[in-house]
Amino acid sequence: xxAETICSAVSAAGLGIAAITxxxxxxxxxxxxxxYALVPLGLVMTGAIDWLASSAFSLTAWIGxxxxxxxxxxxxxxxTIERRRAGKRxxxxxxxxxxxxxxxxxxxxxAGRRGASAQAQQQAKxxxxxEDDFSDIEAILKKHGI
Length: 146
What we know:
Blueprint: H1 2-23, H2 27-46, H3 59-92, H4 102-105, H5 111-126, H6 135-143
Helix pairs in contact: 1-2, 2-3
């Protein structure tokens, strides 16, 4: 009896928090909170807490399974919407791009030139001219008729 009361109170508190979140126009988060809040209520209604006390065939248990199904549906739909929004942000460049440290934005001055000259020196030692860098790329393009 105490477990049912606690689960019901937790569900009521969670639904209250979901209502406040929805009032603040954060509907996706409110739906997710409501889904989590319905889980304890569904567990109480299914009789999972005292399953062995012959509640497997009660109408309340099957309604509880329905409540769990609704909670799962709400949770999965919010995840799907969240993934779609994240996909749109990635393809359009997104307004909320990830923050990058200023030092990581550009290499130190002269680092690229030193690396390129080191490659040219290694190729000169190997007896290859610098223009052979793209020979493999040209071969691939010719293979595909480009």
